[in-house]
Each structure stands twice: as structure tokens, then as C-alpha cells.
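User: Working on a comparison across species. This one is MFS transporter from Rhizobium grahamii. Can you predict its structure so I can line it up against the others?
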Amino acid sequence: MSQIAVNDSIDADSAVEAPSPMAVALVQLALACGGFGIGTGEFAIMGLLPNVAGTFSVTTPEAGYVISAYALGVVIGAPVIAVLAAKMARRSLLLLLMAIFAVGNIASAMAPTFESFALIRFITGLPHGAYFGVAAIVAASMVPAHKRARAVGRVMLGLTIATLLGTPLATFFGQSLDWRVAFTSVGVIGLVTMALIWYYVPRDQVAEGASFRRELGAFKRPQVLLTLAIAAVGYGGMFAMFSYIADTTTKVAMLPESMVAVMMILFGVGMNAGNVIGSWLADKSLMGTIAGSLIFNVVVLSLFSLTATIPVMLALCVFLIGCGFAAGPALQTRLMDVAADAQTLAAASNHSAFNIANALGAWLGGLVIAWGYGFAATGYVGAALSFLGMFVFAASLRLDRRARS
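Assistant: Here's the predicted structure for MFS transporter from Rhizobium grahamii:
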């Protein structure tokens, strides 16, 4: 196979041949492997907090600060790395990002104190958003335009499979053996991903005219900011619900504690289904998929609050809310469309926006619970956020139509 230039576009007059379906599949597999490792590393800590707390002699709530440290790393790292690495070839950048991730997780397993552990988790979170953003651009650049969202969806499939398979396994072995084993394993996945990227992702050249200033120009584009706002506001609802699913299951639906794991599995199944279906729909109608997912979220999150006392309905709603991840590939592809020549920063910032949605949803859900409205009311919070997201989407659509007229 001849060398493939992976850039924003491929010059039709160049001698570069289109990659074979097998080559494309191997690239997507390599990139998805990184997503699997990142997803496993991000979510496994939630089930291992008591173990971490015991090791460092802190309370479980105090141990929870490491989750915030990682999320802060994601939010800060995505735009900063995208700008600083503007003049790096994308294959080289992917290798660097995965190296930081792999070393960070192995170092996490070796942390001698709680303070060092929290700092290392912050550093480990830095490459998260940039990796997914660059991986999405690389995957989309290797397929025809009408298959871009599905290519992005296959990369993100690694993340959704992690919620279903990687996280439970890492949690199980971390609890059975030692939590340090879980992070060491995630680090090994990072090293394997580096090998796969090295062998299967084709070498590329830095895009002509790439610069820090050009990447920063993404934030001067109203459509980029509006799309990020849709993600940050419109999809906080899923996190408002999921952050408190344990108490909703046991204290509202009155189910045994063992059913919490079942609800988490149902949520993971929903995320995988939403990712596959949503990426297919996005290739048919990108804006229609985003709009439809927001309306869908308003309905199912409201239904969650109305029926949370009924175990069967709670299970169904948790699955359907997980399906709301259908917007992930669509929003990532939309950002690549509206960012023009600043795709790396825009695509990487998508995951910063989702982490903001995570923090916003959990915070607002906690407020409603503290005000005495109960755990089931988190669904109404989520529905309200999705409803607000519809107004942001409407503004984006109006701007699109104005530009075309």
C-alpha cells in the first residue's frame, strides 16, 4: 500500500491512492483501542474510590477529588494541546498523546501519596480530548464524505465499549487484587495502542499553513462556539441522571444494591446502541440527528422522572438515556464541518464540552436533590438542559440559513 497523506483533504491531482477497506478498518481499530483504554481509565476509578481511599488513608469523598482532577485535565488539555501541537503531524501527535496517557496510568499505579496521585491523574487527563479529536479527524479523512460520521462513531466505539466491558473488568480486578493493577492494565492498553498506531496509521504531513494562530481562529467562528455550547448544555442531562443512579435505584425504585450494576450495564448498552445508530443517522442527516437527539432526550429524561418508582420503567429509561450518546459522532462531525482550517482545536474541544456537561449536570442534579425534590427529579433537570440545548441549536440553524441567503 502506498503512503497515505492524512490531511484535511486529499489533493485529487496527487499520486496518493485511496486506502483499501482493510487499511481503513485497521486504522479505525487502532484508534478505537486508544478510546477503549481512555474510557476504561476514566471510569474505573469511580468503582475503586473506596480502595484508593483506604490506601492513602483519606475519606471516599476526598478520594473523589481525583475524578475532578482528571476531568480538569481533560477540559484544559484539549484546547491547549491542540494549539501547541498545531505544527505536528497527526500521526506523531497521536503517538505522543497515547504515550502521555500510558505513562500517566502506570505512574498512577506507582503514586506514593494521595497528592501525587491526584496530580498524576490531572496530567493523565490532559491528552484525553485532543486524542479523540485528532483520531476523529484522521478516521474521517480516510473515508468518503458520506461515511465520515460512521468512521468517527467507530473510533468512539472504543469509549462506549469501555463503559460496558473495560470498566467492569478493571473494577473487578482492581477490587479483587489491588487498584494499582487496574491502572497498570490501562497503561498497558495505552502501550498496545501506540504499537497499533505506529504500524497501521499512515504517515502524514503537516497541513500547509498550520499554525497556533490558525488553530485559535476556531474560537472566532460562531458556529464552533454554538456547537460546543450544544454539547455543554444540551447533553448535561444524561450526567445529571447517571451521577445519582445508585441512589435512584435503591431509594426510589426500592431495588437491591446489586441492581445498580445492572443499571450501569443497561446504560452502557444504550451508549453503544446510540453510538452505532447515531453515527449512521448522522451520515444521512447531520443536523437532523442533533435536533432529534435533543428532542429525544427531553422526552426520555422526563419519562425517567415520572416513572422512576417503577423498576421496569427505570431500567428502560436508563437504557434509552444511554442511547442519547447518539449525538456524539454527529457533534464531532459538525465541528469538523464548521471549523474550516482549524479542525484540530475544534474537534478536541468537543470532549472538553462534554466534560463541562458532566460537571454541570452533576452539580444541578445535586442542587435539586439538596432542595428536597428527590433523586428522581434529576431527570427533569436533564430535560430542562436538553430543552435549553434546543434553543442553542436553533440559533446555530438560523445562522446557517442566514449565511446561505
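For your comparison, note: The CA atoms of residues 262 and 357 lie 24 Å apart.

User: Helpful, thanks.
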